[in-house]
């Protein structure tokens, strides 16, 4: 058992199953890909379980921040090669499309626009298809000894699913093509340089640093947090003119939907009460 595993809270029996384990701790939902004997390779049933878990956690007050990680030595060894290649070779197109649909749902459609902040905590092996959920989490912290690789070229396929698209959003063309073409492995510190993760820390500090970051996020107004994340993600594909209009409207909408009245609170505490400085931290909630 690693230091990380030893200190994680107990799994919630209602949300945990064969493929995914969920544990709650002070506003954090720890979501662990839970097929350690298969290095958390992402099977069809894991996708189905992840869809249920993400759906439930979105409306569960115990989840303020979602941390996605892996049980055992892997974050994830990528797509389950047996399930997604050999087993689908003989099945109907309809079954194949259903498997792809389940996977696309959790790995990027849901995660990318999830209502709660998400952090990928990369604890070990991270290959191929695993880059998609990693990149679709808002933030990522890696263990220095995690091993990453776009290994597809090593066994005769392309980085498919949506991996090539996902890496193109964070890595430069030179970097992405280098790893697509060589299949070379790299570690946590290199993942920082490539822009794939925010930071990389020694394995025994991984959980501690992740919790520290979660606490910072949990201090903030959750409505503003959601709106700010969404706004950023949507404007990436807009023009400057569209962005300006959209952000103005999104800002107005934020005031409208924020039950906590964060904007008023912030202005009052800074301008009238003089009890805090927005440049130095969150207003008192
Ligand atoms: N799909 C299906 N099964 C996988 C898998 C994958 N992506 N990755 C690992 N497994 C299975 C192995 O087949 C093995 O199963 P078995 O016990 O029934 O034989 C089990 O997980 C353990 O794997 P093993 O290779 O013995 O573990 P390891 O710790 O020595 O090596 C890896 C770990 C991740 C380096 C190695 O498993 C690997 O290269 N996996 C494939 C990674 C990859 O290319 N992924 C891209 C997919 S898009």
UniProtKB/TrEMBL annotation:
Gene3D superfamilies: 2-enoyl-CoA Hydratase, Chain A, domain 1 (3.90.226.10), 6.10.250.2850
Stored InterPro entries: ClpP/crotonase-like_dom_sf, Enoyl-CoA_hyd/isom_CS, Enoyl-CoA_hydra/iso, Enoyl-CoA_Hydratase/Isomerase
GO molecular function: catalytic activity
SUPFAM superfamilies to which the protein is assigned, alphabetical: ClpP/crotonase (SSF52096)
GO annotation terms (biological process): isoprenoid catabolic process
PROSITE patterns to which the protein is assigned, alphabetical: ENOYL_COA_HYDRATASE (PS00166)
Domain of life: Bacteria
Signal peptide interval: none
UniProt xrefs under Pfam families: ECH_1
Family: Belongs to the enoyl-CoA hydratase/isomerase family.
Name of this chain's protein: Enoyl-CoA hydratase
Protein's organism: Sagittula stellata (strain ATCC 700073 / DSM 11524 / E-37)
